[in-house]
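thread: overnight batch results

M.L. [08:02]
morning all. the overnight job finished for the chain we discussed friday. pasting input first so we're all looking at the same thing
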Amino acid sequence: MVVGLRSRFEVVREKIRLHGDEARHEQTDQWSNRDLIPLPPSRRTWGWFHYFGFWTLSSLNITNWQTPSSFLTQGLSVPQSMLIIIVGRFLIAAFSTLIAWCGLRWHIGFTIQNRFTWGLRASYIPLLQRILLNFIWNAIQCWNGGRLVAVCLTAIWPSYAKMRNFLPESLPTTGDQFLGFIIFWILSTPLLWVPPEKFKIPFLFTSIYSALGMLSMMIWALSTAKGVGPLLNTGVALPEGSMWNVSWLLMAGINQTIGGITAGITNGSDFSRYARNWQAYVIGTITSGWITGILVCFVGLVTTSAAQKIYGEVYWNPPDLLMMMMNNGDGSSAARAGVFFLAFGFGVTSMFENICGNAVAGGIDLAGLWPHYINIRRGAMITFVAAWIVQPWQLVNRAVTFIQVLSSFSVFLSPIIGLMAADFYLLRGGKIRLSHLYSAKDSSYWYWNGVNWRAPVAWICGWVPTIGGLIVTVNQDTSAPRALYELYFMAFFIGFFTSALIFIVLNKLFPVVGMGEYDEVDVYGTFTTKEAAKLGIIPVEFQTDAYDSIEPSLAQETFDKKE
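M.L. [08:03]
and the structure it wrote out:
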């Protein structure tokens, strides 16, 4: 009987195990599968508009629309708030490109990129942080998307907003909100079957629809209010007795703007590796990540200001404003129809933002944990199903402090970014040995039992100075030393530069063997002939038995001369 169960188990395990095409170098083992290997030219399909659409997901959304609100409520003026947004969005684009360059050059993602810095086993430390964030933010995004579904349903059936609450009183939500969450989750699920190589159509649809929806909303508000309203003319109005002057609030605002998207910066190479060329990534990042991101903040500010003139109150959250526009379902059929199409646009963007930014990114990260059994699609499904385990209705409505901690997770992520940048650019000169990233045997990235101890030491040193500020900020402890807050207001920059500097010093004091080495031949068929020539690598079609040769490497000499 035991033998029979074991044989059945082996049959099931073999069925769910992933298998790659060895002829295409799609090895599947403990460290690799088809979705983790360096992407070949045939799978690098993203042009500039793909990246325009990719950044649209973090620009044409509700969160970015509301960005000015947090700065105005602190007492800053409109010009000062917009200055924060302009500088912050520029730094986001700059740091994203900095980290994504490894993917543009070597066509590997975040999961693999950390292996040469942390070691094959220690790379699980940043990987697990990303997986945790993907699980939680996916659930929260599904819940927020459910609110937009509720707006759409109210526009169609006004009685929906007044439905009887069929949930127990112990649950911190209502029946209409929960039903909206379920519908949003179900409608999002089919998008999990779309591979990243085929994201162009969803990007095109969400970009155009959301942009037109936001512009229509602003035009309606300006037309109805016959002007921009008083909010747009807000001047400096620091609260009486405020601990902070304008300069510190500007610094905190820039730090907050970058910190809000640090998780996306960290795994930038997950998506940059799909680029046809580096120009596509840079153009898409600047036009959408920076310019469009600024414009959306301004459109949100103008619309909210005009709406204040109409309704006498400030509605920063678009679902709340949309409900007000149709009088909670009691408005005219024309008003409800307009609100439906606006809410639908926000909802579709939120849906695909969640799939791309959380589910697919989570799938890539999970694939790094169990390459034998998990690819991007399976990992995305696991991430999506985890929304029910996370229970976002509890987090959003009860665990406010927990959400604040998550929003400030850049305290731990910015040191990781610092390590990635320092190692790739300053220590390795942009050179890595791809074949050693997928095998523990004789790998220069195995270090000591798969751990490069320098990385965790430098990482911890990066967040120790700012963790105290995070704690006192979340606890709203006004009696804490001022220095803790000041360090926290610069957390991203302190974490990035501290970890980078300490990591460089440790590597100089305790040098690593094989630093700056690279494969002399294109082992995985990753590069075009032009790319291989630029890197000084023998392209796949011209390979001979290079590894058996005892002659000095002509390819290595060629690379060094180019550098």
